[in-house]
Amino acid sequence: MAVNLTNYHHVLENLQPFHAQLVAVSKTKPAGSVRALYDAGQRIFGENYVQEMVEKEGLLPKDIQWHFIGHLQSNKVKYIAPFVSMVHGVDSLRLLQEINKQAAKHGRIISCLLQVHIATEETKFGLSEEELYALLEQASGLQSVRLAGLMGMASNTDDLEQVRGEFRRLKALQAAVAEKYFPGTDTFRELSMGMSGDYQIALEEGSTLVRIGSLLFGARNYAQ
Ligand SMILES: *Cc1c(COP(=O)(O)O)cnc(C)c1O
């Protein structure tokens, strides 16, 4: 059940001046490890497999806020709709509509982050800028989802200036969308960016939610 509490407190200290929140990414780690971090005060946990998230939710305290951070298939939304508090990787209107439908069934409002493709790798999910604006035009009228902001993953590279540039572009896009579609409100203010290896840069570039796994829970048993 190893969790690295020294790193946990260090991360929290680094987040504090930026008023950003920590999503502790517990994918592939046992419920006992989540519980250990919960006991240290952590309440937001991120998972990217539906079945694993459902199992852990059943075993752990009800005041945990579960964030789904992976690629979510529309046909699996129903399993997490009763409890999930935020979905980070929404990259199609179809998925957003399904989250809306399932949230309504449970009388809930689910916060969603739209995922934008900012990395150079082609394998990663996410919307282009044009697709993002097209989705925003079509998404009005959905009553049971809250469009909370954007999410992105930087390129997996040692070139930290490239990573910084990608984060900066995402921040600019979030600010532009907030101003165009949600002026004078506090909607669309969230920016989910930064992982174990690049979260400090992400904070400097405006992240409000960092998604950190291996720094807290150690390396995972298989590559994600
Ligand atoms: C696994 C994962 C993370 C955490 O990665 P670490 O490098 O272990 O901090 C963050 N975001 C997403 C989408 C992930 O799948």
How would you describe this structure to a colleague?
By secondary structure, this protein is an alpha/beta fold. 40% of the residues lie in helices and 17% in strands. It is built from 9 helices and 8 strands. The protein has helices at 5-15, 31-39, 50-59, 77-80, 93-105, 129-139, 160-181, 199-204, 214-217; strands at residues 21-25, 44-47, 65-68, 86-90, 110-115, 145-151, 190-192, 209-212. The structure holds pyridoxal-5'-phosphate (PLP). Pyridoxal-5'-phosphate is lined by residues 25, 27, 48, 69-70, 195-197, 211-215, 224.
Features:
single chain; alpha/beta; 224 residues; binds pyridoxal-5'-phosphate; eight-stranded parallel sheet
Give the arrangement of secondary structure elements:
Layout: H1 5-15, E1 21-25, H2 31-39, E2 44-47, H3 50-59, E3 65-68, H4 77-80, E4 86-90, H5 93-105, E5 110-115, H6 129-139, E6 145-151, H7 160-181, E7 190-192, H8 199-204, E8 209-212, H9 214-217
Parallel strand pairs: 1-2, 1-8, 2-3, 3-4, 4-5, 5-6, 6-7
